[in-house]
Structures are given as structure tokens and as C-alpha cells.
Write a structure and sequence with these properties.
By secondary structure, the protein is mainly beta. Helix content is 12%, strand content 52%. The longest helix is centred in the first third of the chain and has 15 residues.
């Protein structure tokens, strides 16, 4: 009995000694859009992304993930108006089996800009979203006035993923 207890302690100690590793996961050139007409106030733009954990490390599975945080979010436009008709942005992420989580904000949006950088939300634990096959990226744009045309931006998101090897 004493040998089994000692063996169990050794196994638990070895399992707890696994290293935690933090790496970056990037989503580049994602197009996020909303179809017009759009109205004064919040309007939802959406895109989806298939999560590929092998981009971080071959053989990485969802069981290895400990923590995921948004570290950077930027959006670009080629529209001549830029972001002049936007008051603020709220970035949220969700999945089929995960709650919607606010990941980033920008308030107010600077005028005369062709690119904006959102600030990561203080509490943006996104590991539940990264344990799914697909993630939905939602950008709420608070419009100043109505807009008959579509709204479309290109974005880049960067996440810090911590996992056990």
C-alpha cells in the first residue's frame, strides 16, 4: 500500500511539472462586414474563423490550452471616409458552445484614420472559444447617422495562448 501511495505521488509530481508555454496565435486579413442599410447607433459586423491549433504547435489539442487572451486587434479600411462615421467599436468573440466574451474596445474612434487599434478588454479570457472548431468574430460599430451601403473592414487579431506541453 505504501508503494502504491509513493508511486501515485511521483506520478502527480511529474504531471504537475509539465511546462506552461505561451505563444502567439494570429488571424490576419480577416474581412468583417455588415450589409446595408445600416442605421444610426450600434451595428453588428461579423466574420468567422476556423481555429487551427497546429499553427501554434503540431499536435496541440484543446485539452492542453490553459489560457487565451487578446493581445492586439487592429482594423483597416480603404474607404475614403475612413472611420469618420464611427463613434466607437466593441469587439466580441463567441462560438457554438462558448459564451460571448468582450475582447476589445475603442472609444472614441479617432477621426481621419484609415487604421484603428482596439484596446484589449481587462477580462478577456477566451480559452472556451479556442476549444471550439470555429469562432465568430463580432465587431459592433456605433455609427453616426444612417448608411445605405455595406460596411467592411480588414482586421488582424493576435492572441497569447498559454498551454501545457
Amino acid at each position: 500500500m505504501k508503494q502504491i501511495f509513493t508511486l501515485l505521488c511521483v506520478v502527480v509530481a511529474l504531471a504537475s511539472c509539465k511546462q506552461s508555454v505561451t505563444k502567439t496565435y494570429s488571424i490576419k486579413d480577416i474581412v468583417i462586414a455588415a450589409e446595408g442599410p445600416l442605421f444610426d447607433g450600434p451595428n453588428t459586423m461579423q466574420a468567422n474563423h476556423i481555429i487551427d491549433l497546429s499553427q501554434i504547435e503540431p499536435g496541440l489539442t484543446t485539452e492542453h490550452i490553459q489560457s487565451v487572451k487578446l493581445s492586439k486587434a487592429s482594423f483597416h479600411t480603404t474607404d475614403s471616409v475612413g472611420f469618420d462615421n464611427i463613434r466607437n467599436f466593441v469587439l466580441q468573440l463567441t462560438s457554438a458552445d462558448a459564451k460571448m466574451v468582450k475582447a476589445g474596445v475603442l472609444n472614441p474612434v479617432p477621426k481621419n484614420s484609415k487604421m484603428v487599434q482596439l484596446l484589449p478588454a481587462a477580462e478577456n479570457e477566451l480559452s472556451d472559444n479556442f476549444k471550439q472548431k470555429e469562432m465568430f468574430i463580432i465587431l459592433d460599430a456605433d455609427l453616426e447617422g444612417d448608411l445605405e451601403s455595406n460596411l467592411s473592414y480588414t482586421g488582424e487579431l493576435e492572441f497569447e495562448i498559454t498551454y501545457k506541453k
